[in-house]
Amino acid sequence: MTIRSSYFVKRIISSIVTIFVIISFLFFLFHLIPGNPILILYRNPALTQSQINVLYRQFGLNKPLWQQFFIYIGNTFTGNLGISFFYREPVSMVLFPALLNSLILLIPATFLAIILGILTGVLAAWHRGKKIDFVTLGSAMAFYSMPAFWLGSIFITIAISTKALPVSGMYQLGVYNQNILERMSDFLSHLILPLVTLTLVLYGQFTIVMRNSLIGVFSEDYIITARAKGANTRRLIWKHAYPNALLPMISIIGINLGIVVAGAVLTETVFSWPGIGFMVYQAIISRDYPLLQGAFLIISISVVVANLAADLLYGYLDPRVRLR
Amino acid sequence: MGHPKKDLLADLPSKNMSKKSSVYVALFVAFLMLSGGIFLQSINSGVASASSPPASTSTNSTFVVGWGGPNIDTLNPLTSVNAWPHRIFTEVYSTLCVFAPNETALLPDLAESWQIYYSNGTAIFHLNPNAKWSDGIQITSQDVNYSYYLAKQPFSSISPDVAMITSISTPDNETIIFHFYGALFTVMAVTNVFIVPYHIWSKIENVGTYFGYNSSAPFVGSGPFVISSYKPNQYITLSKNPYFFIPSRMPHVDTVIWEYFTTITSEVSALLSGEIDAMGPSIEPGEISMVKSDSNLITVQSPPDMYYYLGFNTNPRGQGPTSLWNVTVRQAIAYAINDSNLTASVLHDIGITVGTVFPPGQPFADPSLAPYPYDPAKAEQMLNNSGYKIGPDGIRYNPNGTPMAFTIDTLSNYPEMIDAANIIASYLRDIGIQVTVQAMDVGTLINTIWPNYKFSLDIWDWPTDPASPYPLSVFLSWQVQSGVDDSGYYNTTYDHLYEQMMNASSISEAKNIAYQLEQSIHWNLPYYPLFTIIPFQAYSNQWTGVNTSFAGGPFGSYDWMTLSSVHLKSTSRPTTPPTNFALVIGAIIIIIAVVAAIVIYVSSLRRRKAKEMKEITVA
């Protein structure tokens, strides 16, 4: 086995083990949260104790925890995520549409945040210590520290007073016979505010990482050599400094995926965007264990896979990593 | 000059560039493919479902309502316990009769006429001969019989409503005869059982776990509307039922879309921006002025359908403070609370104080009961006389010498409950009792109470049925372990009295017994009822035909008139804000322009710097 393939295999095995550990940990974590889903869902004077017992059996909560755990692990490996306590439907059927809605918001927001972060990071690093650095870095830190719900609420207030953009949901309900342009326009108009909110709260960290990484690279010998050899600014930044400064960004993007989902919980709630964050919020309130486990399984797999991709990309881009 | 420079730089650490560039290009292409695919899928699926209601061809016939309360738990009327689905059931299913607004007088629904004989416990209902299901099939007494059979099953959340029915017979397709005991048959059994289609539901394998709606099969109901689409966490669409059999209640609108919001704040935002036409269940106090100041909205207030209470842990088998087992202590606490000020401070102009465990106006609410008068001196005297004396440090002590200290547990997602808890804490501190407030989510609160009753006081709420005395069952002894009665109240006298009420031979007798039960609660204080919210709802002034007399309001749980009678004031409707295509395109152009400007600016800076460097190098 070559060094490269052995490196990749090790990384993939470690990711699978990580996912298993995470789902096992999450199972016990969710069951440790105080609160009984039956009493939360059915605080109803009409129910007798025997009816409550029937519900316990229906939800499989009458079994000991260790039995529930093995059933859960077995079902997960066969692709069965269980039945949601709240929605009484298979978890996969509840989760998939919500996940899709989240990705529609998260992917463009993350991508825009990365682009904006790189551009502003480069700008700040190149003008280090000058007014433009102060303004760029200051704005990035300000947006990074802003709670998504607060920024979203400000945008909503502006949108309501100007009647410029819709403030909730993914499309206008009750409007029919739209042509394709009107449909797209309707969807995009609903996307703008949550997208801008999420982009702004995300881009700051990329700016900071890019700027600091570039500043470090600017002091490297090869940059000084390139400068001495007469490389112009464009070549210096984009050909020599930027690619080498980008490596830490790859790690940040991988790690960031989990944070993006967490940030999306607030953004989706403020803008009533029916994504996975919105659903996780509901599931925590109602102690919907199967739905929570399913949602966090997907989030965990996304984070582990993103980190795996970052690792593999890192190894591909920098052979020294594979040799360590 | 340029070529030699390129060669000279070839050995610098940019050698991975071609590799990296290809990775970036691949990532970018993957991103475009993924987001493009998802985007198109979303556009198709989203608009397809939104455009699916059959009869609607324009926005003129669609009424969009918001809901910011608890979500739909199930669309099965036999197992649901939440308020919103209850309202949906009133629109899509029939009951034998319905109540007139906030009264116990019965009006026809599926039954056209009826005779009720309390003396021998017999009721005969004659069904409307024109009654049909939404698939065109005749509604018969078999459907009614089957629905009542299901309602009595162990999985049914409405089984106590039909507990007094002893037998049912169906002499013909249009007649159904009930045998029952007790006068409460009319206020519990007649109006609370939604009739489901036997020809559909009898084929369902397990009705207890059935969700009540299946998108792959047409919904079959008998109300003025049918469910035409449902997206969990998003909306439910109701379309006019062409087979609805009561002409006077035929809806004016073709479609009603009821949209779900996680928070009232986001629902109010949608109302103010014109995305929804109306909202329920109630606007929060902090947002009322904003809604009132919008000239495009009409605000309405209706009779309340819930109450908030201060619960005392009276359970002698629990782990709460023993001082609360003493009724004098509980009464002293009640005397120390200024209810009027509390209600005004917490709910401003949408709250009213309550003296019993029903909101005012509910037919079984005892009108003679009022909150305890605010009398802190009397409260102190009662505590002193019972041995709970103030120490030299100003703190009140239990007879065993420990400080008298309580915690008020309440729900973190209800600001009004937290406000009330803090104000009550300050009242109790005034009489020397140490009080802290703990806000938590519902799961944690439940875990604090059941099964070990590890708390002292809690603030929570109960919804109340607009015409039934059933909420009094909360205080029955067996409810302590069923996760219903947070006060842990054991009182066998109360239990016996409750049984008598269920067996009362007339409504007036049942009312009298209900009053006795309420008085027992008033003096024994497992709960101290605090206040109720007068539902504050709003709708667009383009619409009319909204009824305001039902408990819970036109967009609450119990109204069965408004969605049938609501209609536009004028036929041409400016309606929901048209999506501004130009604005969206403009916004996209601005974003692209800003990004382009940044890129141009950065590259111009680079050129300028390069020029400077070149000059330095030459020099």
Strand content range of chain A: under 5%
CATH architectural label of the largest domain in chain B: Roll
CATH architecture of the largest domain in chain A: Orthogonal Bundle
Gross morphology of chain B = flat
**Structural class by SSE content of chain B:** alpha+beta
Q: Trace the largest sheet of chain B across and list its strands.
A: 8-9-10-1-11-19-12
The CATH topology of the largest domain in chain A is MetI-like fold
Question: For this entry, what is the oligomeric state of its chains?
Answer: heterodimer
Secondary-structure topology with pairs:
The complex is a heterodimer of chains A (324) and B (619).
Chain A: H1 3-32, H2 37-41, H3 49-59, H4 65-77, H5 91-126, H6 131-145, H7 148-162, H8 180-218, H9 221-228, H10 233-270, H11 276-286, H12 289-317, H13 319-323
Chain B: H1 2-9, H2 17-50, E1 62-67, H3 83-92, E2 97-99, E3 106-108, E4 111-117, E5 122-127, H4 141-151, E6 165-172, E7 175-180, H5 185-192, H6 198-201, E8 225-231, E9 235-240, E10 255-260, H7 264-272, E11 278-280, H8 288-292, E12 297-301, E13 306-312, H9 327-336, H10 339-347, E14 351-353, H11 376-385, E15 405-411, H12 415-430, E16 434-440, H13 442-449, E17 457-463, H14 492-502, H15 507-524, E18 527-533, E19 536-540, E20 543-544, H16 562-565, E21 567-568, H17 581-618
Parallel strand pairs in B: 1-10, 1-11, 15-16, 15-17
Antiparallel strand pairs in B: 2-3, 4-5, 5-7, 6-7, 8-9, 9-10, 11-19, 12-19, 13-17, 13-18, 14-18, 20-21
Helix pairs in contact in B: 9-11, 10-12, 14-15
